[in-house]
Amino acid sequence: MTFQGKPKFRHPSIPTNALGFTRRDYEGSMSTLCAGCGHDSITSAIMHACFELAVPPHRVAKLSGIGCSSKTPTYMLGQSHGFNSVHGRMPSVLTGAYLANRELTYLGVSGDGDTASIGLGQFCHVMRRGVRMVYIVENNGVYGLTKGQFSATADRGSKSKKGARAADDPIDLAALAIQLGATFVARSFSGDKGQLVPLIKAAFQHRGAAFIDVISPCVTFNNHEGSTKSYDYVREHNIAVSALDFITGREPIEVDYAEGAAQAVTMHDGSTIHLRKLDAEHNFSDRAEALTLLERCRDTGEIPTGLLYLDEAVEELHDTLGTTARPLNVLTEAELCPGPRALEAINRSLR
Amino acid sequence: MPIEAVNDFVIRFANVNGSGSASANLLFARSILRMGVPIAPRNIFPSNIQGLPTWYEVRVSEKGWLGARGGAEMLIAMNPATFAQDIAALAPGGYLFYDSTRPLPLAMTRGDIAVLGMPLTEICAKQYAEPRQRQLYRNMVYVGALAALLDIEFGVLVTLIEERFKGKDKLIEANERALKLGYEEAKDRFACPLGIRIRRSEAVGDRILVEGNYASALGALYGGATVCAWYPITPSTSVVEAFERLAGRYRIDAATGAKNVAIVQAEDEIAAIGMVVGAGWNGARAFTATSGPGVSLMQEFFGLAYFAEVPVVLVDVQRGGPSTGMPTRTQQSDLLLCAWASHGDTKHVLLIPDGPNEAFTFTAAAFDLAERLQTPVFVMLDLDIGMNSHLAQPFAWDEERRYDRGKVLSSKQLEEIVGFGRYNDVDGDGVPYRTLPGAHPTLGAYFTRGTSRDRYARYTEDPAPYVDNMERLALKFETARKLVPAPVMKKAAAPATVGVVYYGSTSAAMDEALAILADTGAPADGLRIRAYPLSPEVTAFVHAHERVFIVEQNRDAQMRTLMTTDLGLDPGRLSAILHFGGAPITARFIADSVLERLNPAVPQPLEAVS
To answer: Most buried among A115, B88, B107, B589, using CB within 10 Å?
Structure first.
């Protein structure tokens, strides 16, 4: 667990944002995930981003599906309404909520099982429609709640905790999102708060479908030799990590490095993962270039992180539909009901 | 002997799908209506788009019997592919009208019918150069001929054409010309009118002719639906298509031109209901329309909406199941699917209209009920109601009527109350108070989930709060019982020991069946169920009659199951009369089945089945 129950007491010098809120005002209830879970770092990054952006917490609606990642909206933004819906269907629920009230900020939190397997269809279509939202996938390549089965983002040939090999090609959600019309697409790493927080902030500012694929290692079920989502994957020499229950007492992993360099980052347990910052020359407004980069890194085994694609000339869902600027959920009889006289005319036309 | 009948016969059109016959046939039907004579038109169409057989049937009934009847006194045979079967189905003494451009094969004629041939194709070939025009106006030519043959006032047809193509003088002129061609040609060729004919009457009154799906869409418009998410499926598609047309007319902001509605065609039924759930959670009136297969796909979301207490409206236009079943045939076979949708202990509110008027009022009411009860509400149409035009009472709307938005706490109310708990039963009716996202900076936020929680919406797996919650949901269902439309009793003129329970589209045939039974000396009282949960009046009705029949258009007597489980009625007391072949139930079938059960020649099995 990344934080314990804390006293409500506030030191007078505690920093506040433009709205006068402290960081504590963006917190939720205590996490029930495994200690050291990457997801908790992402939760923390989201809270951090919302604090720095001075988002009014009650103007955010947080939605999720089912899974470890989908539990996390409870652990953040306690003053926001949340909706933990059904497996793989968060995108449609979020779309409906957005249709009802276009004035709120919508945060969708999902995992690789929730999004890339059962929910792949809805993921694709929510991106196509240009729903204005921040959609974060906490991607660990594995099912946590059902104890360690592969997800559809597990790389071909990678090994499960029980020894099975992933036989199928992985789904690259960032590539899909770019291809399907998301207008803000990024990939990041749960341990890289320095990169993740600004990305989340940028995503919240985006006026269309924003997607961030955050690699978030599962310390319990996907941290072993042969897993490409484990720290060992990129290690040069083997250290058997057979006992996977030593997960207590770790701090969330954080890295910091300069733009342009690809580097092997040593994780808190001594494992490493390739992280490659996009070079400053990368043209993130070019869809084809972004896709080429992802394909190239797939061959080399590198994981490109940062902003991959951005299109600010957004036509989002309400633009397409031509909906009124007012939230639909505040309209009343006056705007909605044509009344008895119009009905009489309709009756006449049916005789 | 040729049949003689005034304002009481069935005329059947055998057409080819995609030939443009539908609008001509509707024009014919409406001309009879304009002469004040009640009609019941029905489409019979297989599941395909173009080139295959389709039938249109108009029952003309001065007495106002609007159910399907079966058989036909006149046949308009426009499809050579089905000549043989169509002619075989014609009543003895009936009339066959066909396109005699090509001679009728001898083997297909019958000695006991009157054969009326008119070279429609030849006439149109002379008059029109374009092939499509020839095809379309051929339909108008036969409508013109029918006017002469059946004594329909030509002026009525002209008026209808003028109304339909208002402002398009060219079209008016062209259609009138085609009608006139047929009219004159028939007068020349045949002794007009025939033994069957239309005579002006006053039996229609102010009733309207309208499809149930349109009526339901109109109900959604008047009921204040602002979000509609859907996936096309026969026979529900025209609900949303009509809603879209209506919204295009009545939901455009005059100042900005923006829409006061959002309609999204989803990628499947699961996404459609997901959007409706999301919108309902966020305070918009949202609905979807689908048919059985769609409801099957949506099951998980109904469990969520029931348990998380989210208002949802669904219009189910039922068709023949199971699986893909018979997409273009009618049935009442989704009752259990909807009433108990999803895993776990669930019970859902069903509204069951009998035709377009109730399709309108019940769909509008569904939005009030869904928000009042914070739960899914199903409007149970079927293909017969939805896709056929019915003579119905005109729609009415009370100027003073206000939407019941249910127990939604405003920002101000949140500040006044102490200790808001999303699932607290403050009023003792099982319906808690809810808040909408964004309502208040610090009060009223809660986490919505499909997992077990306590009264303050906090996750818990403890048995006590779980049971507390489930029992409150059951109590809420009892509140629903008091709010849904009560059954309608149709008492026989004479005291009756026989009672017939029915619902939905069976109503039209039942009116006539009850009259037949009364005439046969076996009077029966009727009780039309209009909603689930069921009213205690149903129990009283069953107990008040010695013999009780339940008439349904499904195989398994699904309403009987609901009566048994919901009211604790003895299924042995409920004799099921079941009609589920896909064609609408007829009065004859109902009356014959009841009479056979009452006076069995030989010991009868428990159920009559067609």
So the answer is: A115
